[in-house]
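chain below, 1195 aa
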Amino acid sequence: MFRTIRFHLLSPIGVLILFSVVLAVTIWLLGPLLAIGDVRPFDKPTNRLITIAGLAAITIIAVLVILLRRRSQDRQMTNGIASNAASPSAEADDGAVAAELSDMRKRMTEALGFLRKSKLGGRFGSRYLYQLPWYIIIGPPGAGKTTAIVNSGLQFPLAERMGKSAIGGVGGTRNCDWWFTNEAVLLDTAGRYTTQDSNRDADAKAWTGFLDMLKKHRRRQPINGAMVAISLSDLSLLNDQERRAHSQAIRSRLLELRERLGVRFPVYILFTKADLIAGFQEFFDNLGSDEREQVWGFTLPYDKDAQATDKPLASFNSEFDALLSQLANRSLERMQAETDYQRRSLIAGFPAQIASLRGVAESFLGDIFHGSRFEDNQFLRGVYFTSGTQEGTPIDRLMMGMARTFGIGRQAIGTGRGQGRSYFLTRLMNSVIFREAGLVSSNDAVERRYRWVKRGAIAASILALFGATAVWTNSFVGNLALISGASAQVDEFRKLASAIPGNSIADADLPSIIPALNLLRDLPGNPAASDPEPPIELTFGLYQGDAIGTESAQTYRGALNSMMLPRLIFRLEEQLQTNINNPEFLFEALKVYQMLGLQGPMDADTVRQWMQIDWAIAFKGQDEVQQELLDHLNELVNQPMRKIGLNGPLVEQIQLLLAETPVAERVYRSIVKAPAAAALEPFRLTDVGGPAVSRVMLRPSGKPLSAGVEGVYTRNGFYTYFLPSIDTISDRVQFENLVLGPHAEDLTPETTARLGKDILALYENDYVARYDELLADVDIIPMENLGQATQVTNILSGPTSPIRNVLEAVSKETKLTGLPGADAVAGSAISAVTDLARGEAISKLDAGGQQIVEALSLVVPTNVQEEAPGRFVEDRFSTLHALVARADGAQSELDKIIQRMADVFGELNRLALGQGSGAAVAAQGSGAVADLQAAITLLPNPLQRWASQIVTASSGAAVGGARADINAKWQGQVLPFCTRAIDGRYPFNRQGKADVALQDFGRLFAPNGLIDRFFNDNMLQFVDTTSNPWRLKRVNGVDIGISDAVIAQFQKASEIRDSFFVAPGLPSFTFDVTPVALDPNVEQVVVEIEGQPVTYAHGPPEVTPLTWPGQNSGRTRVAFSPARTDVENAIQRDGPWSWFRLLDTAELRRTNVSDRNRVVFNLGGRIAIFQLRAGSALNPFTSSAITSFKCPSSL
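prediction:
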């Protein structure tokens, strides 16, 4: 009884009803305590009854939905069964089979219709078909599955309705028999499903399709268990290979059941046809009806943890021994009662016959249930022996063993014809298997959902029952804490307020009052709090914040008026006094000052905007302070403020100063500085310049490209804001008169009209200035190298050229004489005003159009085209308009310039790809760069400036490319040889041991030698050789960038060439030597220069012409005679530079003539003096070029 009640209470319907009852009781008992603000919806019993009735209706509807859903599930399942039964098999190919199937379909439909209307076992009403436990029976063909069911003693409700044949199943023996009992549904599968040995593919598909149908209609627990029927005759007669094939087939089917259905179910092994074991009928012949219903076999031990074991047959032998022990005990009694000696012998041998099955059964079951780490273990629940009917010849396993061993023949053991009674089936089904329907696990996904739904419903009921007490207790305690906290905050506020001056305020220290104001603002229930909604845990009818909040709000408002407002006014007085010479500032400040002093109409947005700007400057970087002040200011201006007396003399002084400012200027500033003007979309280069504008343009001032022109100075701002604002001049002047007081100027229609024109003139001047300033502050980015120049010119000359985009956008923004859009009033502003003067067209305009035309009428005389609003702006930018204009689809002048830029890009791109000479381009200027340069003078700014920057940068990039080209040639063609030829060698290194070969010297320095030819071919055009020292020349405004030190080396190479070479080839020059003086102690001196002697012996001096190098190259000497033994008498040097080496040992003295030198030879104190005269003014003997020349490592 208790299990039944518990089952129904925990069912979905039971949980739903229980929850509804608990909720209804809660509403009735605790509903009056629930409050939402000041409203108590469940205070009246009528309201509670209505709510409970609604809850009951909802519960009934939910129960009906569940029942209807169950009925639908049941109908779907029974229809699926009928469909499966009615599906013809592959063998249904003749009329007889078709007729049989037709009759079967009819019987199936009738049977299921009856089942849907029947009460299948439930004590509390009908149970639907899918609510009964379902068991599947598998086994090889002929295993006795159907016989076991028929003789099980179960009640089949269809038998009474449809006759005895209906008990045979209504699903057709070809596939599956569906046995409907009062306790369960038994699915008797065809034996071929188990063995799948007739048509493997067809049987496998039919088997898996059958399992899928089960899972579809019983998602949570498709089956409650599986019975495996195995005939003992098969175990006895089949050989090992055949038994193993049967066991493997059964194991595969069980695994498929486990994996396909997703549940872990108990498996019951039924060894059928036990009556075929010799002695069975004789042994159990005396059993009565009740005794035959008992269970013969054993149920394995079970606990929840044992389901996961990998040794399900661990207790098989012990249980089998117990079974044999019972048989042994019974055999003595049966033998004594039996008088027939032959039957007595069979009874005596029956336990042995059963014992002989142990090994076969254990091996067979082991093949089915052996553990594997790759497969799920099966849940073996029990092993049982049954007999449905006694037919066939008994098998004597002992005699079979002896026959095989000794070769003797088998003896017949009776006819095997019994009385057709069932043994050991009824209680096995009812008391063992059906009672364990709950052992099956549920489908994990479905069970998880059901489990959580059930837990949730139970938890919700418990929470609803016991949570209310906790909620109200918590609310009560929380409200006590709320009151205590509010009291503490008030005390804290008093401490803070006592330290702040409250009456006579002489400072603008706003941050000092923030903590005190925050305390009052955050008091519970204060509407000014950041979170006015009370915490939900403090409500439920007990919230005290509303009562506290009324007092909190009043106290907070008083603090704002006494602490914050005076300081704001004091701050404004400071600003007015310190900006006395700034009329524009004074007007706005005085306006806010009067608003806070309640001497003018309050505009909360204006006050808020002014204070935000002031605080952003005064408290820069203190975002939290600014936000706190803004929050308190919002509360101050949104409530009645206390009137505070203003500084009258200061106000009058400022009014007098402001009255001196022209009205037009004041009104104009109020128009363009208004918040509505600031909200207009500005004109930004980043918006109009295209996606690449930031890659090619910059602002020299440092401003970002996104900082453009204010929205009021755009075409849209002109028409949608400025012109309509002119129509409000009268209102604006009246507002300003309130600020200026008695010093305001009275307006007349004439002054109003004049005022409109003056405001327009101020606007147009500023409009022009804004775009002039913007365009003057935009340059092309510097181009550091050829690659960047190529990229920038490519973007500037491309389809989305930022130059074109910017200039066309500015041109559009500066055309103001025509109304914008397709719905222009009459085609232009002037025609609109003209129509208005004639009384035409005004009725056709919308409100916005009428306002624009009325504004135009204030500033435009009728039929005066030249004075159209915006004409001044348009005229100032007429050059730009002409530049971008395209007449009849032809190219504009701007398009032509951009095409020239595209040509420059093409030239630079060829250089970048190595298809042109950078030196040639740099020296001569490319045609594209030259063409663009020629067109610059005719262009207006800023295009002229931008084009000039492109020309300069392109030339510089070409020059940079030229330098790299020249350097590559130098390092590849000249430097290696130059380094090998002269480094460390004489005369370039005076201490060098080795001499420079004259042939190498000539190859390097001769006219048209390596250095001379390289310089003439690559550098001459960049170097000014007419100056001394040589210097670089600027080409197209830039220089090539080669250092002065490098240029100096090429100048030295030129000097070496001119000094040492008369003609191309080897170095050669002429000179003459003349004796000047000889030591008296020396009779004769001989100077021999490479085979050319010069002799002097105190006679008249003679001029000796010489050539270097000499014919006998390689030796030069000077010798004094007569020779002395105590001093050096001669000096000799060898090598192609021996003469220069000899001169290094002498003293070389300069004279007043550049081509003449004195040479003094001193040997041991004896002196000989000669005069050298070079054959040219470029004296090779005194030139420093040869000693200081170095091969430049790079240019």
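Residues 444-498 form the longest helix (55 residues). The chain has a mean pLDDT of 79.
thats it, cya
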